[in-house]
Amino acid sequence: MKLDRRTVLAGSVASVAAPLLAAGPAHADARRQSLIDQCLESARKVLSGKDYPDALKNMMKARAVLIVPELVQGGFIIGASGGRGAMLARTSPNNWSYPGFFGMGSGSIGFQIGGKVSEIVFIILTEKGFHAILDHKFKFGAEAGVTLVAVGIGIEGSSTAAVGADIVAYSSSAGLFAGASLEGSYLDADNDWNALYYGPGATSKAIVVDRRYTNPGAEGLRRFLSKW
Length: 228
Known about the structure:
The chain is α+β, with helices and mostly antiparallel strands. The chain is 33% helix and 23% strand.
């Protein structure tokens, strides 16, 4: 059978180009992009809304921000507890990194019919708090020397309460931080998601600190945070 020379050439070009395309970041990765878009909406709600009167004051001093747009507690809802989020770091005014993905495991709060879904924005104020989350699995209530202040909707005076705090957490659920509901929860870098969004080898540290990876899908979130 005689093959058209143009067909052979086209096939050769495609076979060479395919590995190169596969090695690049998945710009159109819908699942990870959806989470980044949700992080932007949560950041807008907390930092532009009236429910968190002191968030902007703390944001001016932020070393980093970690946004979890959907945290499930009381796994009766979907049969599991936890959520995912993204961290961005600031190295100079109006200059934020691309977001690195993190998983958040929910602490045990007992059986609850209906459970609870909340969004949380962690404003990380100190280098110590930043590296406590970035360098290893961060366990709430078990990190010696790291102070976390938690604030729910409409609770004023968080700036006063946050004096000396390493991390201030703002939650959309007024009851989320009642008692010790975050005890036993953890934050951990999700490098599988990082690699799917940015490309092979991407880690949260390489993205957030070394700034070796980029993805245009995160520009909206970076632009919003660049106000501070």
